[in-house]
Amino acid sequence: MKTAIPAIQKGDLIYITSPAKSIDSQSVIFAKEFFEKNGFRVLISKHCLGEYHYFSGTDSERTLDFQEGIDNPEVKAIICARGGYGCVRIVDALQWASIIREPKWIVGFSDVTVFHQRMEKFGLKSIHGTMPLNFSKNSEASLSTLLSALKNESYSLFSPTDKFNKKGDIKGKLVGGNLSILYSLLGTDDQIDYSGCILFIEDLAEQLYHLDRMLYAFKKAGILERISGLIVGGMTDMNDTAIPFGVSYEEIILAHFEFRNIPVAFNFPAGHINDNQALVLGSEVEFKVGENGAELNFLG
Predict the structure, then answer these.
(1) Where along the chain do its domains lie?
(2) DSSP code per residue over 133-200
């Protein structure tokens, strides 16, 4: 049973911080104005707009910023400004006691999958959703589903039929995120228990053979035989080698489920795409794949 995270309400404080790569000020200002127009107060972390080589700040500065979001009792949601790389460098330096005692939302995707995994280990939900870097280019549904998730409103996600889909209907807990990050956490203290879960994956700019290698790692770790369903979001800008790998990314994925009768849906509206709709990870969901496409209903 997941610990409930209070729905945010008008007047609540939203905290924007950049735990990984540096970000331009315009993207953060756009996001701040978006939340304010929807009735929320916004606080931008001290080093959110900073630059330290690749990062928004030193590891210490980014840790202090994120810790402020965890510890500030007024903050009801921590919005990660962007991904890139850097969350794994600070996740173990953070003191998580306050968020365990008084849960609040952590929002983001891509590299922020590190924090989603940690929240799952704590028995807490989190939101795989769009980030300020992308707000100005996102679909309306990306932003509206983010608000629905933050407010604990019921909503559903749909994707059109795809020739690679495998039909089925299952209920279970939704987990996952960026495949490369999930892969990097295999065998660590942040690997979660995937048993019976519906796994969501997405990725960006990976070689096809690397996708296959990551899935073999999941298979050899016994994970693919334990999940009850698979949702494949944006597999954006996948790359092939000079001598072609010979199959599509869909065929690579399906090959790992040839002898498993579980629902699988491709091209789901989440990931490194403009239509990056929000997923409440850790939620109980109903996942249905049929003739007319795939549907994901959040049950609580």
Answers:
(1) 13-150, 156-298
(2) GGGGGS-HHHHHHHHHHHTT---EEEE---TT-B-EEEEEEEEEEEHHHHHHTTTSTT----TTPEEE
